[in-house]
Predict the 3D structure of the following.
Amino acid sequence: MDSIEITRPDDWHVHLRDGDLLARVLPYTAGRFGRAVVMPNLDPPVIRVEDALRYRARILSLLPEDSAFEPLMTLYLSDETTAAEIEAAARSSRIVALKFYPQGATTHSARGLRDLADHHRLLEAIERSGLPLLVHGETTAPDCDVFDRERRFLEETLAPLVGDFQGLRVVFEHITTAEAAAFVSEAASRVAATITPQHLLLNRNALFEGGFRPHHYCVPVLKRERDRRALVSVATSGDPSFFLGTDSAPHPRGAKQSACGCAGIFNAPIAIEAYAEAFRRAGAMDRLEAFASHHGPAFYGLPRNADRIRLERRDGPGPTRDGDGAESLEIFWAGEKLTYHVADPCRK
Ligand code: DOR
Ligand code: ZN
């Protein structure tokens, strides 16, 4: 196939940040994706509807006038979140979901909830609202091995929760393990998962290839090859429970290459190309469109994008970085082979 055309994809999980960083990274996402579910882990986090609407306005103010990109906003669940706020979120067409961060699990999660299971009232309100609960699915128990965090969260928290709240709609975000893939495959259609390009292309060896590789560090951390294969298998299966979510999470180089480097992989500039590479390697290019452009809107109850993008077959590496020095953003898959490239990737 020399080139393929697919319905314009959406990104169902992205960190757009705020301020100068927002201005730098937004064009990559807005130039390629039709819509994106914008994560609320700013500092301070996006807890109230009015915070989300203001954040949305800041995003829109940075877009070119003719841009059709639509940011889909989320609220950050914290101890301050009330049932009334959830109801208000459900009434706002701008807010599409609620995000659960386990306290201490990742960037700006200090105001997340300690244990989801302790928040029955809130969960009932979320279930009633019909808004999906987006789950960062990792336990933060100090005795838990880092590589077991997702598996243990699934066993101890997520599986019981999905059983107890039969009307709750859940997206298990950025899944990384064979167990998570199997759970979502077998669960009812109200349970879905996003998968990142890095978890489809790399296993945890990539973190230690010839030395420590901070730009391959994200959370949940890369897992074993058996896990990667299980993710590729479900992503390319045609199962509508799995869809595209880049988890693109930029941190300046100085913050990544440090004694305590931040978690996050900046993949927005080549995300579609990287997914295409994973699907091509799996011999499943014909399934890319469903994963990237059909399953997400179906789960969120939104129409598919009306326009299309073209991927041209042209072997060549992707770009290495945005900017220079300590403030540069190192781009995922820099210098590695990409077989398909978005033709005319707009404004960047
Ligand atoms: O690696 C990550 N970075 N994982 C997350 O869950 C958050 C993200 C960030 O915001 O930096
Ligand atoms: Zn994320």
The first helix runs from residue 19 to 30. The chain has a mean pLDDT of 97. The radius of gyration is 19 Å.
